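Q: How would the structure tokens look for this protein?
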Amino acid sequence: MGSFPAFPPSVRLAVVVGDTSEPTPYTVRVNLPYGVKLMPHRHREDRVYTVVSGVFYIGVGEQFDEAKLQAYPPGAVVVLPGGTRHFHWAKSGEYVTQVTAIGPISLDYVDPEDDPRHQRRR
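A: Here is the predicted structure in token form.
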């Protein structure tokens, strides 16, 4: 697993299948360590998340709101249409999700100040 510029440095992403830079199917695995939050963002592509391990907490909305988080255990599948603003939190421990979509991979933060790519430029 390696880093992905749009994620905080401790988050890891591994390409399982495909080329995430091309308009073709891909599958990646994302590992969030305990306590890490991915602030509100969207993906242009439709996504299917499968929880591999840990509990995946995801909420829908333009602002991070703990009350909107839903917990998904290992084996759960979450379908998220492209453009849906949402957020994640490794609230109860590390989790790994497998994401399947058609590329290219994208991640656009609602607030540009939350984007690690922007923060690294300072």
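The chain has a mean pLDDT of 95.

The chain has one domain: 12-119.

Upvote if useful.
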